[in-house]
Design goal:
Layout (H helix, E strand, L loop, with lengths): L4 H11 L10 H8 L3 H13 L3 E3 L6 E3 L1 H12 L2 H17 L2 E8 L2 E8 L14 E3 L4 H8 L3 H8 L15 H14 L2 E4 L6 E9 L5 E10 L5 H11 L6 H6 L3
Antiparallel strand pairs: 1-2, 3-4, 3-8, 4-5, 6-7, 7-8
Helix pairs in contact: 6-8
Length: 252
């Protein structure tokens, strides 16, 4: 497949920014992608012209532009699964009082594509568009566990286990045991593995051939939700997602 070098370089620049790295100097960008400053400058000015990159006039640092938010919202808002699941998310959040998420698999990560804040538990670390590790989030785990075995093996091969909390899974053997457990019980649990003080449970949304389309999770605060209450929430998720026939009944 032919690669257009200038396009690839521009995309590499955009990929440098995330929730931890929101602004960069041109020298930092140049060092990170190993390109001369003059080349980086031309790429940045082109991206800036079309609003994919913005520049802080006070310190000259670059950041992502609003055009990306516009394009991203357009993609997410036109996802059929998001439209189909919206009422279910609203009902589930109203029933449990908790924050619920809808996520999909994208490469080696999950991605939140919808979120409904709970009246009793506002989870502020999450946002639509946030990318999720497969090994430390309930949505990530359940999306992976419902892939075919050869795809699971491919995704796990050389997977990088970032250690986020003391509860985070950090090796392949334990991760495979977790995947088998999820396949048997039908849901995934993140017990403070991605965020201290937060527990999440997730189930898959399946289509006719048992292929996973997405996953729905309930996020809870450990300080407010007991083990018994969490078990009730897991049963609430069983209402429309764990079984293929139920998923079809709810229009997924």
């Amino acid at each position: 497949m032919p690669i257009i070098q200038s396009v690839e370089r521009a995309l590499r620049i955009l990929d440098l920014f995330d929730e931890h790295t929101t602004e960069l100097k041109i020298t930092e960008i140049s060092e990170k992608i190993s390109l001369h400053k003059s080349t980086v400058h031309s790429l940045l000015k082109t991206l800036q012209k079309y609003s994919y990159i913005d520049q802080n006039p006070e310190d000259g640092k670059y950041k992502l532009g609003l055009k990306l938010a516009e394009r991203g919202n357009f993609v997410i808002s036109n996802m059929d699964i998001r439209k189909a699941a919206r009422k279910y998310l609203l009902d589930l959040s109203a029933k449990t009082g908790q924050t619920v998420h809808l996520g999909i698999l994208d490469g080696l990560e999950g991605v939140y594509i919808d979120k409904v804040e709970g009246e009793q538990s506002i989870i502020r670390y999450s946002r639509i568009g946030r990318r999720l590790p497969l090994h430390s989030t309930a949505i990530g785990k359940v999306l992976l566990a419902n892939q075919k075995q050869d795809e699971i093996d491919r995704l796990i091969l050389d997977y990088q286990y970032q250690n986020v909390t003391p509860n985070t899974i950090t090796n392949e053997a334990v991760f495979r045991e977790e995947i088998e457990k999820i396949q048997q019980q039908g849901f995934a649990l993140d017990n403070q593995e991605n965020e201290q003080g937060v527990r999440c449970v997730a189930v898959p949304i399946l289509k006719g051939d048992n292929k996973v389309l997405a996953a729905i999770s309930i996020s809870t605060l450990v300080s407010r939700v007991s083990d018994d209450e969490l078990a009730v929430f897991i049963d609430s998720l069983d209402l429309g997602c764990r079984q293929q026939a139920d998923c079809q009944k709810y229009g997924f």
